Amino acid sequence: MRLLQLFPALTVKNYRIFWITQWVALIGFWLQLTAQQWLVYTMTDSAFLLGLLSACQFAPSLLFTLFTGFWIDRHNKRKILLGTQCTYIAQAALLGLLLWTGNETYLWILFFAFFVGSIDAFDMPARMAFMPELVGKKALHSAISLNSANFNLTRMIGPLLAAFLLNYISYSSIFFLNALSLIPIVIAYTRMNVNSVVEEKPESHPLKEIREGLLQAHKNPVIFKNLIAAGLVSGLILNLGTYGPLFADRVLHAGINGFGSILFAAGTGSMICGVLSAMASRQFSRKFIFGNAIACGLTLMAVSHVSFQIPALTIFGILGFSLTLFLINCNASIQMASPKEYLGRIMGLYTFVFLGSAPFGSLLVSTIIEFIGTSMGLLVVGALEIGLLSIFARPDEKK
Questions:
Q1: DSSP per-residue letters across 116-137
Q2: pLDDT digits (tens, 9 = 90+) for 7-17
Q3: How far apart are alpha carbons 15 and 318 in whole angstroms?
Q4: Which one, of 307, 293, 282, 274, lies nearest residue 375 by Cα?
Q5: Is there a contact between 128 and 331 (Cβ–Cβ < 8 Å)?
Q6: Could you tell me the CATH superfamily of domain 206-399?
């Protein structure tokens, strides 16, 4: 029990059940994502078509999250999450069945990528809005940190496990395993004793409710400026998949193994940050969060002219730590500042900004690197992030 007391969120029984089952579910998620990417690459031998796969999975976040937010505010969040997990199981099983029967095509895989992204558009904002109900606001920071540690540790394990398993079992078996991995969390949601009260509200037009959520976010400087910072960091710094392969190949001259090492180093830094942050329950100031966002840009600038692998991996580990420290506290700060009746809409807006900025940021980063080179490009991207943050997201002096 003394170990549990180090992590405030784990003292809550319902969260412990959620956290343990998330381990299994997230490993299944990374198994499917890795297998799906390799499958498309082997089917098409095209970097563009592989990128289109990712675009199809992120597109629903741009299309739907502003609308799903107000719907989440009107419904029981635990039941929404129970529904999304069951739908995840259905898509994984159907995709596995498609491959098992030998009817897979690239277009079918694109369809299922869009299908998963559509479920994400409901699941991600609902899950974030559910956390305060699950653990209470005092343990919210700890819960978000543990969720981040879970995500980053399974991101390190899942792809390696998928690569190992694909030597012995089929792609369809990987997708069936993902479906099975979701069963424990479905059972957990059915047994959680969470009083997810939904206040009765008069019927109003969805666009009016969305507008009210946007106005609430805009007039609250904590929410508004943190949303801007989240979009800038996500779009310019978090795109390791865009600049990581180029840095590994052109600067470190280490090829795909170098890129894997970069992801592992960043993931290790992220995981360490998640575990350490989970021990704290304090609410950090806006200046602290802003400083972490600036640190992400400075770290990218620092690595831009390092050409030796060990120092570069060390800096990428620091970058992973800084990114996770920013994202944990930014997310927690937005949730703490959001009125309960608007939380679903504001988390939908957070999802829209966080995921929606990634494709545009990736295009901008790749264009800058293409024109001025990898090292100089990363230096410019880091400086650009710092400049934009200073103009649009700097906290008020009195804060």
A1: HHHHHHHHHHHHHHHHHHHH-G
A2: 788 888 888 88
A3: 29
A4: 307
A5: yes
A6: MFS general substrate transporter like domains (1.20.1250.20)
From-to residues of CATH 1.20.1250.20 in the chain: 9-190, 206-399
What average pLDDT does this structure show over 222-231?
94
Determine what percent of the chain is predicted with pLDDT higher than 70: 92
Tell how far CA 78 is from the center of its chain: 20
**DSSP state for residue 9 in the 8-state scheme:** G
Fold of 9-190: Growth Hormone; Chain: A; (1.20.1250)
pTM of the predicted protein model: 0.80
Q: For residue 13, which amino acid is it? A: K
pLDDT in tens, 144-172: 888 877 877 787 777 778 878 888 888 89
> Measured between alpha carbons, how far is 330 from 285 in angstroms, rounded to an integer?
10
